[in-house]
Write a structure and sequence with these properties.
344 residues; alpha+beta; 7-stranded mixed β-sheet; two-stranded antiparallel sheet; 40% helix
């Protein structure tokens, strides 16, 4: 058996030396070192040897296996290094070539509009508050004077996750959550920016996902005139000193009385044109005095406290300020559109 092992060793080493690539080496490895290889077969017959011969044959078999294995690994390494050198020759890099320019990003126009609006209200003493986009039915509807089966819920087609969980249709739930944190003690003065979701058909002026900024002020002695004063300051700072405002009666379940805020048309200066439908005014947001039921649900005594709330669409404000005619431009990631706002 010792002679047979030496023959297998010499034969295997010759095969390794003659191998021309990694596939040839793999075949040699399987043929001589595999479970069905001749070296393994020799070792299986060791049980028939005498006690004196068995250790010598076992030692020789291990030496042969290790010798062949080491030679195969050495040859594999040589083939791999040669292949890498050949690859580097073919893929040589000309370091003298100029680099490719990297385009810089910028703030999205909606982000810029949100930050601008926040800055205006922060300058008037407001704080910025945020809340979850996945809301409960209670905070999104019931706490805002919209009990179950209230017909006004039809105004806001809702994405329900379960019978109680939904994607918020407005940022108003943040107002209730903030009032609860104050535990019935004023003042409260916040704006709440964030994404909201409604089952709208996407077109030039509607989207199933959009952004809102809502505001809330609660304190003793708050009146409708305070709301009008806030709007007058905000509109002139955001749209320009030449813009006028007016309030029109409206209806919202969570405010009473309620109003729509109109601003004078920038295109015609209030004289009437296609943009303002010949009225001289453009509607921008809804507002009103906080309904007593909403104050109660937030933990405030409506006999002691009063307040006003308002809500605006960020996309609408961006479209009005920059003359954008299609809301879908904000969400298509078209660089031709976004590059126009690199300095916004």
């Amino acid at each position: 058996m010792l002679d047979r092992l030496q023959e297998l060793h010499d034969e295997a080493m010759k095969k390794v030396a003659e191998a021309e690539d990694l596939n040839d080496l793999k075949e040699v490895r399987v043929a001589y070192l595999g479970k069905k290889g001749p070296i393994t077969e020799v070792m299986k017959g060791m049980g028939k040897l005498s006690a004196e011969e068995r250790p010598k044959v076992g030692q020789k078999a291990n030496e042969v296996r290790e010798s062949v294995k080491s030679y195969i690994e050495e040859k594999e390494k040589a083939f791999e290094e040669a292949a890498m050198l050949e690859k580097l020759k073919k893929e040589s890099i000309d370091v003298t070539l100029p680099g490719r320019p990297v385009s810089k990003g910028s703030r999205h126009p909606l982000t810029s509009v949100v930050e601008t609006i926040e800055d205006v209200f922060i300058g008037m003493g407001f704080n910025v508050a945020e809340g979850p986009e996945v809301e409960t039915d209670y905070y999104n509807f019931e706490s805002l004077n919209l009990p179950k089966h209230h017909p006004a819920r039809d105004m806001q087609d809702t994405f329900f996750i379960t019978s109680d969980l939904l994607l918020r249709t407005q940022t108003s739930p943040v107002q209730t959550r903030t009032m609860e944190k104050h535990e019935g003690q004023g003042p409260v003065k916040i704006v709440c920016p964030g994404k909201v979701y409604r089952r709208d058909e996407d077109d030039a002026t509607h989207s199933h996902q959009f952004m809102q900024i809502e505001g809330l002020v609660v304190d003793e002695g708050i009146r409708m005139s305070d709301l009008k004063g806030i709007f007058a300051t905000f509109v002139k700072q955001y749209f320009g000193e030449e813009r006028d405002i007016r309030l029109r009666p409206s209806f919202f379940p969570f405010t009473e009385p309620s109003a729509e805020l109109d601003i004078s048309c920038a295109m015609c200066g209030g004289k009437g044109c296609r943009t303002c439908k010949q009225t001289g005014w453009i509607e921008v947001l809804g507002a009103g005095m906080v309904h007593p039921n909403v104050l109660k649900m937030g933990g405030f005594d409506p006999d002691q406290y009063s307040g006003f709330a308002f809500g605006m669409g960020v996309e609408r404000f961006a479209m009005l300020k920059y003359g954008i005619d299609d809301i879908r431009h904000f969400y298509t990631n078209d660089k031709r559109f976004l590059n126009q706002f690199t300095r916004v």
